[in-house]
């Protein structure tokens, strides 16, 4: 049964885009979402209908893209829809330590990747406790003690809201594909060029034109041991 907040569009353009959104390949869906967004309220209706139908499924980056379009639209109807059905976003913000990840979710939904990166490090420091919060960086020994649940929440937020480009599991996949060679990883994800480290923050790329795995920075400025602990964490086994 269609929810009363959702009214299907009748325009021929809408009908020709609805089906590929629901059952097309991810590449097709990626192209259809902005086309629907550009059709105004009727296009947003279809996006709301799609997201509502996906409500009980684990969120993918396609859901994340639809959510971001609705979240950043000027439509009061879209805002009411999200508040009614997705008040905490589309990724379950589960934590074993009572950490509130809603600020990370909101920044990523707004595509403010630089602020989301800073907030991610802050939340990881909160996971460790008062000393890490004060110093604002992590020891590699602390990372090994992170609850798997929390790391998975952070990773899912980044994955879902970056078209699958960013996140710890993306970095891990690239690292493993390179035979765990750190120098090759730095070059591949844009953290180093030749002998020169990418300078924070202005030389990093804070949007989706960045190389795959570019974000989050994971305390990158303090050497390899923190990210080694992150990418080797039991959460990914």
TrEMBL record:
<dbReference type="GO" id="GO:0030288">
    <property type="term" value="C:outer membrane-bounded periplasmic space"/>
</dbReference>
<dbReference type="InterPro" id="IPR016024">
    <property type="entry name" value="ARM-type_fold"/>
</dbReference>
<dbReference type="InterPro" id="IPR032192">
    <property type="entry name" value="GUN4_N"/>
</dbReference>
<feature type="domain" description="GUN4 N-terminal ARM-like repeat">
    <location>
        <begin position="6"/>
        <end position="87"/>
    </location>
</feature>
<dbReference type="InterPro" id="IPR037215">
    <property type="entry name" value="GUN4-like_sf"/>
</dbReference>
<feature type="domain" description="GUN4-like">
    <location>
        <begin position="95"/>
        <end position="234"/>
    </location>
</feature>
<protein>
    <recommendedName>
        <fullName>GUN4 domain-containing protein</fullName>
    </recommendedName>
</protein>
<dbReference type="InterPro" id="IPR008629">
    <property type="entry name" value="GUN4-like"/>
</dbReference>
<dbReference type="GO" id="GO:0046906">
    <property type="term" value="F:tetrapyrrole binding"/>
</dbReference>
<dbReference type="Pfam" id="PF05419">
    <property type="entry name" value="GUN4"/>
</dbReference>
<dbReference type="Pfam" id="PF16416">
    <property type="entry name" value="GUN4_N"/>
</dbReference>
<comment type="similarity">
    <text>Belongs to the CpcE/RpcE/PecE family.</text>
</comment>
